[in-house]
Amino acid sequence: MSASLGDRIAGFQLDPSTALAAVTGMVAFALVATDGAWRRARNVITIAHEAGHAIAALATGRRLVGIRLHSDSSGLTLTVGRPDGPGMVTTLLAGYLSPSLLGLLGVLVLADGLVTIALWIAVALLLATLALVRNAHGIGLVLGTGTAIGLVAWYAPASAQAAFGLAGSWFLLIGAVRPVLELGQQRRAGHTWNSDADQLARLTPLPAPLWIGLLALVTVAALALGGWLILR
């Protein structure tokens, strides 16, 4: 007789080995560092980025219009509310920081050996995001990502789930850094003047390069902390 959903969710309690943690970290790094793989895998970071904007907007009392995810791995979150103030600043900051925060959340759950629970949490978060997406490509992207994770959580053995969960957490932590570095490069080249950092500069006394530096510092610090928790 097949196990119930509750049994499957609670059944896999695994403490992954340091070797597995190191190997999955290298796989995640390769996905981020290789341009061809990154162009496809970056969609996961974009989903987290735009979901972060949406959650922050709702938490600060802004009205959320919706999320759009595009085929070039870019995204847009539309909100309505006061155009300045702490709520708008928080909403803008949340985008680049959300992949790091989600990666740390995954690490903390995995640190207790709750591999399957971590995967189902990811599915639940994607389903919540799906309700906010307003274009066909975005719906397909979020639905496909959630389905893939759900299939791993339901069918894969514990060892495969552990590898998948660790690789996903590593990828969020490492993948959070590259967009910030790319943003700095694009801005120095004069290719972007309406990024989150530029909007933050218009809303606060701090210039855009300083905001980019702060985002880089936080994402690198989150990667260091997450990596230490995984490998300790």
Number of contiguous helices: 10
Low-confidence stretches: 9-14
H/E series:
HHHEEHHHHHHH
Helix content: over 70%
**Number of E-type strands:** 2
Mean pLDDT across all amino acids: 90
* Share of residues in strands: 5-15%
The secondary structure category is: mainly alpha
CA(first)-CA(last) distance: 39 Å
Q: Tell me about the biggest sheet?
A: 2 strands, antiparallel
Strand order of the largest sheet: 1-2
Radius of gyration: 18 Å
Question: Which geometry do the CA atoms define?
Answer: globular
Quick tags:
mainly alpha; 2 strands; two-stranded antiparallel sheet; 232 residues
Summary, kept brief:
74% of the residues lie in helices and 6% in strands. The protein has 232 residues and is mainly alpha-helical. A hairpin with a 5-residue loop joins strand 1 and strand 2.
Structure description:
By secondary structure, the protein is mostly helical. 74% of the residues lie in helices and 6% in strands. The chain has helices spanning 5-11, 18-33, 35-59, 86-111, 115-130, 136-155, 158-175, 177-188, 196-203, 208-231; strands spanning 63-69, 75-80. It has a two-stranded antiparallel sheet. Strand 1 (63-69) and strand 2 (75-80) form a beta hairpin. Helix 4 (86-111) crosses helix 9. The radius of gyration is 18 Å and the shape is globular.
What's the arrangement of secondary structure elements?
Elements: H1 5-11, H2 18-33, H3 35-59, E1 63-69, E2 75-80, H4 86-111, H5 115-130, H6 136-155, H7 158-175, H8 177-188, H9 196-203, H10 208-231
Antiparallel strand pairs: 1-2
Helix pairs in contact: 2-3, 2-7, 3-4, 4-7, 4-9, 4-10, 5-6, 5-7, 7-10, 8-10, 9-10
